Amino acid sequence: MSAFFDYLRNITYYLLFASLVGLLAPTGKYKKYVSWVMGLILLVLMLQPLRHIVGTNVPVTQWFEGILSQPGEHGDISYENWRNEHLTAAFEDQLRAQVEGLLGRENIILHSAAFTYTEDFGRLTTVRLTVSLEEEEARRVPFIRIEPVQLQRDTPADDPLIDKVKNLIAGFYNLPHSHIYVEIFT
To answer: Taking the model in full, what pTM does it have?
Structure first.
């Protein structure tokens, strides 16, 4: 008998909540959508005891599980994976823009960048950069720039450009020099 009273108490609480939402909901075209969603939730609450009678004791949270998956290029992926991919791409784009701006002030061109960071995007752990020094002549011609094929050369460990880039990145991101890898293209 207490299960019946719990059922009635849940519906009563929900109806009070729904009436409060109805009072606070915006008027106009959005009012009908709010009332439709509230009615759908009330229907789910009222049909909840029927799942015991029918014999399908599936939690309500699993009723809408199929809605949360988004189709992707490689089959179905969950919304959480899709969101994490987009967050990662946005975070890396932001890091690349920051590093380009930081090095651009010192007339250093960023060719490639790779970052390693914590899973929660809270801390940058490793930076790998490929840079070159902007030539004086290239800065004089603002609208035409023809770059030849760039070849990688072995850079000595004591190159002043490498030290300059490491100092800039280490100071900005609070990273030790041992976690910053820099290659120079000429």
So the answer is: 0.48
